[in-house]
What does this fold into?
Amino acid sequence: MSKYNTNDPEAAAIRKKIEKLQSMGREAVLYDVISKEDVELYELANDVKLPEDYVWFITNVGNGGIWEGDWRFYPLDLDEYGFLNEGLPNYKIGQEKFAFEVLDTGCGSGIGLMLQKEHFGEIAYTDEGRAFYHPIPLHGFKEFYLKWLDEACLGYDHIGFESTPHGTIEEHLEQYQKDPDIELLRSIWLKVNPQCATKQFLSDVHSAFVTETKNENKVMLARILVKAGYEDAFSVFSAIFRPENYETIVWEMHDSLPYFEKWLNAEGVIADAPKYYPMLVEIMKYYETAKERKYFEYCFAMTVMNPAFRAEDIIGFLTSDDAEIVKCLAFVYQDTIRERVGKYIDEANKKYDKMKEN
It folds into this structure.
């Protein structure tokens, strides 16, 4: 078979978009198409009817491929069977074919197509051999794929495309300004990155951030600014710096800024790193008594490796008898951190050994 149906304008347009992604340096591959006769043989052998839009895609555009990252679009294979017989959340279908898995998204999860009654052909989520229907504003494989393709061509991150509103980040922001729905902000946050965020977009987000009074929305706008590469991330964190936001701040510092790895591996290379230090110290004090301590190991590492670090500033944490904190310290392995607080780590190891004995 040829790579795609060159006589079908839509198939050719899809292939051109794949070529555009490849020219952008993004990983996007489609395999050769499969014949309609092979699809019919598959359906006959498995006593099943596959959704029409999916059949059109694999016979005109490509039968499987690779999407950016760990995502894999399964090819239809006469010797392989991607049927799922068990459904979530609380019931089984038995031997009846409940869904057909078409995409591996990693970690045992994926995307499938429903084969059941009124939801036939719609998107299902799959998880370790089970599938469950989850209504989203996409109604089949073709629509799902084209949404991913269009937004990937805009340079957006692909994570969450199956469950986020379709459209550009600028359109979402404009809609949010008319109707402040936080789901629009979450969609922007999932899609945005420094490469696709224009100066005008950053300016518009910052304007919305400054005037926003609802904490939940303000935090999401802050996360968008930081993930999009806004040049003054410190001022953004300062504007939302209060206990209910501490864990989010730690996560964004660790995940969206280059500081974490650089502080760990090349102390002092970030000129403005010390100005974050008082903020980190306050969060460390919060972690001493917090009921939950999400991401506190990240905060600890960033605090210790900050060029302004002084052990006395977080001595309560370093000498704590709290079991979770002791365990965190006992399992510190980075040489760069041990060089600074090694004696406290050694003491924590002794405490941890005693805990295990008891």
Q: What stands out?
A: The two ends are 68 Å apart (CA to CA).
